[in-house]
Write a structure and sequence with these properties.
The chain is an alpha/beta fold. It has helices at about 5-15, 35-45, 140-160; strands at about 1-5, 25, 50, 55-60, 65-75, 80, 90. It contains three helices and seven strands, in the order E-H-E-H-E-E-E-E-E-H. Strand 1 (about 1-5), helix 1 (about 5-15) and strand 2 form a beta-alpha-beta unit.
């Protein structure tokens, strides 16, 4: 079961079909937010189904493992219990970049554009993790990007010299 009916939820659902016998996509509203291309791909791929206007009411746990998911129909109030083998949550993937000045270049969806050193379009500003264009949205990848950005920041500070002494930062060795 995939919770989330945007592009990421639909993409992950299609990927999961390589390993699963079926996937249910749960949409909180009655509107599917995924692109029409992704909706068409899901519609062609049986046994995939999309349920709309459902809110996750509870994840059921028995002996420390997932035992079910209670979904509430937001229109009728009816509660249904599903017993998927796993639940993948793909909601809220909007980048939290609203605090950045408009000079920072983003893509159409608001993700920050960087070069291969994680530098943004604003000198001295670096970006790593989920807010960055091209991020895999995985915690371990974000940690690695953060490390890469920290190294790039150190080099940047060393390059501007006396304005920002960096003796305390150590060497690149």
């Amino acid at each position: 079961m995939v919770i989330g009916a945007g592009d990421s939820g639909f993409e992950e659902s299609l990927h999961l079909m390589k390993f699963a016998t079926g996937v249910t996509i749960v949409a909180r509203s009655d509107e599917i937010k995924a692109s029409q291309i992704l909706q068409d791909k899901v519609a062609e791929k049986a046994p995939m189904r999309v349920v709309t206007n459902r809110a996750v009411e509870e994840l059921l746990v028995e002996d420390g493992a997932l035992a079910g998911v209670r979904l509430k129909d937001r229109a009728s109030g009816e509660v249904e219990t599903h017993t998927p083998d796993g639940v993948f949550v793909f909601i809220g993937l909007r980048p939290n970049a609203g605090f950045l000045p408009e000079e920072v270049v983003t893509d159409a969806r608001g993700f920050v554009r960087t070069d291969d050193t994680f530098a943004t379009s604003m000198t001295g500003l670096y970006s790593a993790g989920d807010v960055r264009v091209g991020s895999t949205k995985q915690a371990v990848a974000a940690a690695g990007e953060g490390t890469g950005a920290a190294i790039a920041i150190r080099r940047y500070l060393q390059s501007i010299g006396e304005a920002y002494p960096t003796d305390h930062l150590g060497s690149d060795d």
